[in-house]
Amino acid sequence: MAAKKIYSRPGWSLRSKNPIVIRSLLPIWSLLYHHYFRVETSGWQHIPANQSVMLVGSHNGGLAAPDMFMMIYDWFRRFGLERPVYGLMHPAVWQVLPSLADIAAEVGAVMAHPKMAIAALKQQASVLVYPGGAKDLFRPHGLRHKICLGGNKAFVKLAIEYEVPIVPLISYGAHDTLMILVDFYPQLQQLHEWGLPWLFNVDPEVFPIYLGLPWGIGIGPLPHIPLPVKLHTQVCAPITFTKYGRTAARDRDYVNQCYNQVCTEMQQAMNNLVQRIEHQ
Questions:
Q1: Which residue positions in the chain have pLDDT lower than 50?
Q2: Model pTM?
Q3: Alpha helix (H) residue ranges in the chain
């Protein structure tokens, strides 16, 4: 009975995806893709046919995260709605913006929890995860080409235990759709410890100061309108490991080794993408 109650809550079901809603959004995505961000993409041949994958991205561009949405659009363009994919979304979205979260769920977002990733993999679906979360979204502009997965190793454990390849997603340009100057979260955290309550009772994890539309100067993790910067997205070759299974997934040293491998390979791919674009 308790399990049924848990999975009836928003974000805890794979059944919320609505093909009608997805099809209604495709023209808007197409307009943004082709005319606003003028996306150039590559590497989609790296996604294995007839196999679930763990898509692992590095977040960019504040809450708008334009590269993520363009990646999702590319998935639907290439695979239609027949090849299922679910994206893990931070629980705070359901708490702070429930109406927006419900729309995201109709596109395929589920709660960012291992149980939901496992449920998707057991249905032969692929899983999209951005492990760096808010810290990745709002890292300072000087770190825009730095892969930041936030030390979150849960996706590695799942990939090892359920024997699915990790397919990295990287991008160039999205972090220029605003300019993040600095993150004042440590100072805000100190104020919270002294008694300042969190807005909406949610720890924001970051508190950036940034330049962007429509605020001019944005203070805190506010939504914004991304500048029409040209985006380059890339799907990288799958990353596989030497050992798989439950025992390997419970080996902390091995998981750390695999996590470091993912970070290293993603950073090298990012460096190559930056070099290629900036030397064109």
A1: 1-7
A2: 0.92
A3: 2-7, 19-31, 66-79, 91-96, 98-107, 114-122, 133-137, 154-161, 185-193, 246-249, 252-278
